[in-house]
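Consider a concrete sample entry:
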Amino acid sequence: MKLTNQGSDVLRNCGSGAAELVLEMFRDCFGLVAREQLVQEELWAEEERLRRRLEADLKQLVRQLQERNAEKNVFLATLAHELRNPLQAILGFAEELSNDLQVRRNDEHCEDNLADWGDLLDAIRGAGHTMGRIVNDVLDLSKFENSQLELED
């Protein structure tokens, strides 16, 4: 009570100009507080708007990445199958030539230089089998990414 009485006494002794000045200062302080609250509310609203926009953009980006990943997997599977078919033909022809070479080596009347043929056929078969393993790895990767293949321990 004593502080309140002293504050009232100070205002009475200072005159009406001082009282009006103090009241004006209080009004300015309350106005600043109200403006600060308004600005804070606007900032929160803007933050919420930006958060929602970022979430929507992120969801759209994830969808696009999933679509591109699926397209990549289809491409890899298609590529592997397209490579496998002619590769099987190459390996089949190499096997047939190799069998033919064995027959010719056993033929006493054959005068061809068959040693060179054997080395070439071995190279074709080796490269074909290496390419086949690569194609199979690409297919396995594609299946794994599509959750159609599980890793074994």
Notes: The mean pLDDT is 77.
